[in-house]
Structures are given as structure tokens and as C-alpha cells.
Amino acid sequence: MENEIEIKIMLIPENIPLIYQWLNHQNILCHETEELANCYYDTPDLYFAKEKMGLRVRSKNNQHEITLKAKGEITGGLHIRPEYNLALEHNFPELKRLVSHYNLQLGDIEQLQQNLKATFSTDFQREKWVVAFNQSEIEIALDRGLIKNSQDEEQICELEFELKQGNIIDILTLLEQLPKQNGIWFSSLSKAQRGYLVGYPDKIAKEIEKLAAYSVENHSEIETYQFAQQLADFIRLTDSEPLIHQYQQLTAEKVDSVDYFTSQDYFAYNLSTLTKMNINSND
């Protein structure tokens, strides 16, 4: 088991050349491109989704691996989650083997294994660079592809900054140097979360109902910020005016339209807030 520490940023395809230009000025230790086929599994009653977990089988160059991403912390675009991985001989999701290997507690494993079914896929090309920055090594991955389920599909176009070794502050400092451009934004939604939502307006509506009824009274600064970023994710999905109003009340940020949530102003606000919270947590 390892803790995956990464920052997820979404972008429009038109901004990819700008990212390439910026990357060419970094201290690149290695660079490679790979094709990744990922199938996510769950039970008919969505056990893993309800537990805020993701269970997938990834295939690359005829090699297969099962991964369980457990519930962790997601603050804005910063994702810190326990991750359990196990190599497979084929692409069948051997959950029992994974649970036994790591001695995990997941309820009735026999029943879970029997009820697993393919729920959606995320197939994409990953181009990745490992860069040396300050005292850290940071992997930057550009993912481009599709999320597909039985109802619909959605484009993947995102950057992930993963800490390989060093300090999370170095990722945030590196992001300060990222070109400031509309159409690059932080997101708390993982590919797995998006896979459950694509083509399901009823599920999105239920999430919006939960957000609208949620109160942050007596919550910490981090909890309040996390909630604000969840609002932002669903505002981008739905253009919901009530959620925009709720976001403005919560953050005191000026929001003229839904375009704010993909703007360079929104990016700068998130980066400043994340940096401040991480510096304070290390004091």
C-alpha cells in the first residue's frame, strides 16, 4: 500500500501546446508515452461508489494490474488517497487476492467478488515527464482519451502532478510557474467519479440536492474549502445558478458567470488557497 499524492488539473485541448512549451523549460529526468486501458468494477448496488472507493483493472502492454483506491482526502485538486495494487495474470478483477494480500476489511468478500461487474472504462494515452524541482521529483502526466459507460461518453483532457519524492509544497511552487490561461482549472473529480456520472442526469441531480442541503457551519477551513470545490465541479457540469449563489456566499468570490470556474482567476484563487493551507499545516 502507498499513499498517492497528486494534484489534478483539467484543461481544454487548445491549451495543450502551451503546456508543451512550458514543459520544455523544465529539468526533465525522463519522458515516455503509454496507452492505458482501464475497466472499473462495482456491484449492482454500487458498493465501492458508496464507500468512496474505486476498483479498477488496468491493462498496459498485455500486462494487468488490479488497483483499489480507498477513501482519502480530496482538497480542491489535491488528492491524497491510500492505493493498493497487485499484478494479475489476466484482466479478471481478483478482488479476493487483493484483499488477502493486504489484509483489508471490506465486508463479505465472497459476495463482493461474485457480484462484481464492469461499470465503465477510462481508456487514454498518458504522456508523462518526471521533473526535478527544488528538492523533489514530480511526475507530470498528460492524459487524453475517453470515459465510457453504458449511457454515454466524455472526453478526458487533464494534467496530473504526482509527488514521487520530496515535499508537496514543491508541486504547488511548480504550479505557480504554470502558464496563466483561461481553460485550465483545478478539479476534485476523479476519472472514477466522472465515470459514475456521465450520462446519468438523475445521479447528478441527486448530488446537487445533497450539496444544496449541506451546511458548513462549524466546519474547519479545509472542510469548507473542500465543499466549495465540490460546488464548483457541479456548477461546471450543470451551470446551476443556485449552486453559483451558494458558492459566492461561501467564498465571497465574485462570480459573473459559469466561465469563472474555468478561468485563470479561479485557478489563481485555488492555488493561493491550497498553498496557504499546506504552509499552515506544516507550521
From TrEMBL:
It comes from the Bacteria. PROSITE patterns: CYTH. SUPFAM superfamilies: CYTH-like phosphatases (SSF55154). InterPro entries: CYTH-like_dom_sf (IPR033469), CYTH_domain (IPR023577), YgiF (IPR039013). Coiled coil: none annotated. Residues 2-202 form the CYTH domain. GO terms for molecular function: inorganic triphosphate phosphatase activity; metal ion binding. PANTHER family: INORGANIC TRIPHOSPHATASE. This is CYTH domain-containing protein. It comes from Ursidibacter maritimus. The lineage of its organism: Bacteria, Pseudomonadati, Pseudomonadota, Gammaproteobacteria, Pasteurellales.
